[in-house]
Design goal:
alpha/beta; Dihydrofolate Reductase, subunit A; eight-stranded mixed beta sheet; binds NADP nicotinamide-adenine-dinucleotide phosphate
């Protein structure tokens, strides 16, 4: 069982603008069946976790919650969730949530959707195994950072998917690259 942070980023390392816009991302071209695209990644997954801002962005963008995977949304607020029980709100320690997700996933992998700090919280606990980033050909100058931590990573795969430069990295459990 592997825990992945899978996300798209601007070339300068932001996953959303400061206003939480993803217009810069949604205008890009990607082959949904191509290398490192979501459809292939989705087949590996058994559970997902995300922060409240990301959850609320998905709800606003899609009109309703589109995922069937068991999901944990980190928040300190009582935000609305689907009635089918597929989304749980939590403010528990990431280690406890990771353990719950592992049981729910039944041997399949876990997806940390974002934001970057939430992925960092899992990394802080030694629970983040892989980072997948699809780099869009755009710079934003500022916004939500892709992974605001000091981590050493090993590049384990790379691909082009139309507009995107796609990298897959293993998180190394050794001395962080910051002092
Ligand atoms: N480019 C991409 O592929 C991609 C992927 C994912 C996200 N995004 C975007 O990136 C942006 C990320 O937003 P963000 O930086 O605000 O991050 P976020 O993780 O989506 O949301 C942060 C919020 O999550 C809650 N939270 C985080 N850790 C928590 C913890 N340990 N316990 C309880 N609650 C916790 C808090 O919500 P409360 O204030 O409710 O307590 C916090 O304000 C969004 O605009 C999203 O749409 C882009």
């Amino acid at each position: 069982m592997t825990t992945h942070y899978y996300t798209a980023s601007s070339l300068d390392g932001f996953i959303a603008t400061a206003q939480h816009s993803l217009d810069w991302l949604l205008k890009q071209d990607i082959d949904e069946n191509g290398p490192m695209a979501y459809d292939g990644f989705r087949a590996m997954l058994g559970a997902m976790a995300l922060g409240a801002t990301t959850y609320e962005w998905v709800l606003a963008h899609e009109g309703s919650w589109p995922y069937t995977l068991p999901a944990w949304v980190f928040t300190h607020r009582a935000i609305s969730v689907p009635e089918d029980g597929s989304v749980r709100l939590t403010q528990s320690d990431v280690r406890d949530v990771h353990a719950e997700m592992t049981v729910a996933a039944g041997g399949k992998d876990l997806w940390i959707v974002g934001g970057g700090d939430l992925a960092g919280q899992f990394a802080d606990a030694g629970l983040l195994d892989e980072v997948w980033v699809q780099y869009a050909p755009v710079t934003l100058g500022s916004g939500s950072p892709v992974l605001p931590r000091g981590l050493d990573l090993e590049l384990i795969d790379v691909a082009r998917n139309r507009d995107f430069l796609c990298g897959r990295y293993r998180v190394l459990r050794r001395t962080p690259n910051t002092k």
